[in-house]
Amino acid sequence: MVKAAVLHHYGEPLAIEELDLAAPRFGEVKVKMKAAGLCHSDWHVVQGQLPLPLPLVLGHEGAGIVEEVGEGVTSVQAGDHVVLNWVPSCGRCPYCRLGRPDLCEAAARLTATGTLPDGTTRFSLGGKPVYQFLTAGAFSERTIVPEQAAIPIRRDVPFELAALISCSVMTGVGAVIHAARVRPGSTVAVIGAGGVGFNIIQGAALAGAKQIIAIDIVEEKLTMTKTFGATHTVNAGDEDAVSAVLDLTDGLGVDYAFEAIGRPETMADAYNMTRKAGMTVIVGIAAPHETVEINAFSLPSQAKTLTGVWLGQGNPPVDYPKLLDLYAAGKLKLEPLISAVYALEQINDGFAALKSGQNIRGLIRFEE
Ligand code: APR
Ligand code: ZN
Ligand code: ZN
């Protein structure tokens, strides 16, 4: 039996349940979770914005220790420290072969089914299947994932910091470095200073941006963005974010604008605050039925690049260790990203704090 936070019905609090967990099968790995972050993507699911099979073990930003491996597993062994990779790419589909494992079709199917590659999960409750979010199911004392979803890491980084690498750091820093390829001396705006947005800000600082404008509605967090490299802040609750960014850039707009909330309105704002021939990068995830309104004439006449990014366009087996090395070298800040630590039983308090925007990152710490 394992204790896990389970979503039974959209819009309801998560229930702490004792689930049965079967042994890992061929190619699967059992991970004893040590820490897991509360990400807005989990919250999108709780609210019913990303419809998935229920009941579902949420959580995808996590780190732990390999406890047991199934037959055929070669890349990790019991005792290894691992970070969960929520896009376990197959290596064989057209996108993997193109060198874009972030867009792997097999991994996208697993996201939709909430299962492991064989179409089932090892979690069950009263004999009925329980699904797992993004192949991870990180809000559980133990989880079973495909080998590709357990990335071995250096042992000298605490699990709570390593967990952040899995989603918010990979997504934010990767959006800057892989997707936008921000050049030194650039101007950057970031809408949404949450776990992901703070990492876009520190990624932009790492890339040598000269001006980094952080936009949020929570003043205390805006103040903190300065320690991550923001040069200016805009409180979108007090003033129009697009006008404020135009004012700060001599009316031009920024070279790169990132949206890290997941709202169509702020996605349009990001586009509208990008200069001609600049780049807009959508990082936030809106519900599948939503659309963004963009002026049609501006598409040819302003020649902006509008793109999006999933998993920071990363390749976790390469990028997770690299990001941890950057932390160890003092080039990435991880400790100050953690605003609050919760026990698994307090997870609904953590989501309430996420909803109000008060945390940069809230984290579940698993008991020994
Ligand atoms: N204008 C500006 N900022 C806003 C607004 C708004 N209208 N509404 C909310 N915010 C801010 C919140 O105050 C918060 O700081 O957006 C931030 C969102 O942060 P988190 O909830 O921590 O979200 P995060 O986990 O960073 O994810 C952001 O990226 O990966 C995706 O699914 C994820 O869509 C989500 C996005
Ligand atoms: Zn996430
Ligand atoms: Zn693939």
Strand fraction equals: 25-35%
- CATH architecture name of the largest domain: Alpha-Beta Complex
Residue stretches low in confidence (pLDDT < 50, at least 5 long) are none
Major beta-sheet overview:
7 strands, mixed
What's the end-to-end separation, in Å? 15 Å
- What percent of the residues sit in helical stretches (DSSP H or I)? 25-40%
User: What is the CATH C-level name of the largest domain?
Assistant: Alpha Beta
> What is the C-alpha radius of gyration, as a whole number of Å?
20 Å
By DSSP, the count of extended strands is 19
In round numbers, the mean pLDDT is 97
Specify the number of helices: 11
CATH-assigned homologous superfamily of the largest domain: Medium-chain alcohol dehydrogenases, catalytic domain
**Structurally, how many domains make up the residues?**
2
H/E series, N to C?
Answer: EEEHEEEHHEEEEEHEHEHEHEHEHEHEHE
Structural class: alpha/beta
Instruction: Give the bound compounds.
Output: adenosine-5-diphosphoribose, zinc ion
**Remind me, CATH topology of the largest domain?**
Quinone Oxidoreductase, Chain A, domain 1
Shape: globular
GO molecular function: oxidoreductase activity
Cofactor: Zn(2+)
InterPro entries: ADH-like_C, ADH-like_N, ADH_Zn_CS, ER, GroES-like_sf, NAD(P)-bd_dom_sf
Protein name: NDMA-dependent alcohol dehydrogenase
